[in-house]
Amino acid sequence: MEKTPSTSRRDFIATTGKITAASALAGVALPYVHGAVDDTVRVALVGCGGRGTGAADNALSVSAAHGPTKLVAMADVFDDKVKGSHNALSKKHGKEKVDVPADRQYVGFDAYKHAIDGLRKGDIAIFTTPPAFRWVFFQYAVQKGVNVFMEKPVTADGFGTKKILEINKEAKRKNLKVAVGLMCRHSRARTAMAERIQNGDIGDIVLMRSYRMHGPVASAHSIPRAMSPEFKDMEEIRWQIRRFHSFIWASGGLFNDFYIHNIDECCWMKGAAMGDPNNSGGDPLKVEETREKFPWPVMAQATGGKHYVKNGQGQPYVDQNFDSYSVEYTYADGTKLMHYGRTIEGCHNEFASYVHGTKGFGVFSQGGHFPAPSALYKGQTPNPKNQIWKFPVSESNPYQDEWDDLLDAVRNDKPYNEADRGALASQVCNMGRMAAHTGQRITWDMALNAEPLAGNLDKLMGFDSKAPVLADANGFYPVPQPGIKKDREY
Ligand SMILES: NC(=O)c1ccc[n+]([C@@H]2O[C@H](COP(=O)([O-])OP(=O)(O)OC[C@H]3O[C@@H](n4cnc5c(N)ncnc54)[C@H](O)[C@@H]3O)[C@@H](O)[C@H]2O)c1
């Protein structure tokens, strides 16, 4: 076992003790509070960061018709994340709903198993870690027969996409309810607009445009670990997890993490998985053979680059992202989806998605995810005089709506499985990112069958595990070199 620096080792020892205590509980069904009449849907949170805390809050805030719900376990690879999330949720919802004593707070790479082991059929496991771990947790949850809410992106590479599609066959067989955090798909305004577009209100779609352009955010830009007082003594793998937007294996990079919502909602407007989260046409594993029926883009070409290689203090960026991307996606029928992404200060900012048809134009995101300004126009500009439809009422919060929809399905045993759709939307991102990073035209099949970026995440044990990508002596990680590295991204 490699030596870990002292601060981290203390953390790990504390952690190991907790896991040992937890292991004694593993597999033991926790007692029902009210015996057979208890209809509480219990929730376990795996990944107690910003979104995990938000998703648990949504789970505990479902309408009375869909309650009661209760948080019963929390898991993470950082003790401080569990504590911070637990405090925030307890403060808002109280001990009754946040019933997670210390012996149900798990830390470690196998923490997810302990959290899931305490659930029973009908309960829900939330996965809000970096996306690379999704298939690992999903596999275990499906094996255990529990429902799942997993955040977007669902995969960071083709390997992950194939895993999710495969595991989901069993989830469907078991009638598990599986939600994916592409909450815009639950936006009431966008849903009404998608139906109108499918009905032909703006004619045939010929072009979609999406934009996600703003300054650097989240953990997408990283300086060498050794230069960071906060991270210099942290184990390499936990550092990469902490800065997951910087590492393509962990997140699909900023490309997947930031762009997937806009890209997916464009695919939706074009009809992908419209009304059927399980992909209503073609075979995602044999797209070349079934491309005429395939409702997602079949090819991408893209450009991108990193214009700024140092931060304001002159420290080098060592992450694997470009700071600008432009992608042309092509559908089997020739329709184009153009996506523009930029993470640079001082430039024009835009966060929007638009659709152009032969008879009109639609705006369905502008200035963020919510509220959606969903509206349709005659002609090709948003001229108010030419508006032919607008969502008539102010929109409810889609982050909450997606949870009410999930609980409705759980309580009333309605069909509900978004895993295929989430995996395919993630794969559209994998394809576009790969096109930018290699400088090649990338087909669906090429991206799906690309070499795995991190194939063995189910085998990770201690925090001294080898990270999937390693830095050179100066702390720099391998970066994409379009035109030079043509078959893989770095
Ligand atoms: N739907 C949305 O609009 C939306 C918004 C924000 C984030 N997200 C998604 O949610 C996910 C998490 O993002 P975030 O912003 O909350 O990040 P975060 O870093 O705040 O939280 C992630 C948490 O997962 C933990 N973690 C990492 N690997 C783990 C493992 N193997 N086992 C257990 N815990 C592990 C981390 O320690 C961290 O606490 C991402 O996929 C992100 O794209 C979605």
Descriptive notes:
- The chain has 14 helices and 15 strands.
- The protein has 490 residues and is an alpha/beta fold.
- The strands form two sheets. The chain has a nine-stranded mixed beta sheet with strand order 14-13-12-11-7-10-9-8-15.
- The longest helix has 20 residues, at 6-25.
- The protein is globular.
- The two termini are 28 Å apart.
- It binds nicotinamide-adenine-dinucleotide (NAD).
- Nicotinamide-adenine-dinucleotide (NAD) is lined by residues 46-52, 75-78, 81, 109, 111-112, 128-131, 133, 151-152, 181, 183, 241, 257.
Give a summary of the structure in a few sentences.
With 490 residues, this protein is of the alpha/beta class. The chain folds into two domains: 11-185 and 403-417, Rossmann fold; 188-396 and 426-459, Dihydrodipicolinate Reductase, domain 2. It has 14 helices and 15 strands.
Largest sheet: 9 strands, mixed
Query: Taking strands numbered 1, 2, ... along the chain, how are they ordered across the largest sheet?
Result: 14-13-12-11-7-10-9-8-15
Strand content: 15-25%
Instruction: Give the low-confidence spans.
Output: 1-36
Tally of individual helices: 14
From the helix content, strand content and strand pairing, which structural class follows?
A: alpha/beta
Kindly provide the name of the CATH class of the largest domain. Answer: Alpha Beta
- Record field, number of beta strands: 15
- Helix proportion of residues, in percent? 25-40%
Return the CATH architecture of the largest domain: 2-Layer Sandwich
Ligand identities: nicotinamide-adenine-dinucleotide
Distance between the termini: 28 Å
What general outline do the C-alpha atoms trace? globular
The average pLDDT score comes to: 92
Please write the string of helix (H) and strand (E) elements. Answer: HEHEHEHEHEHEHEHHHHEEEEEEEHHEH
**Number of domain units:** 2
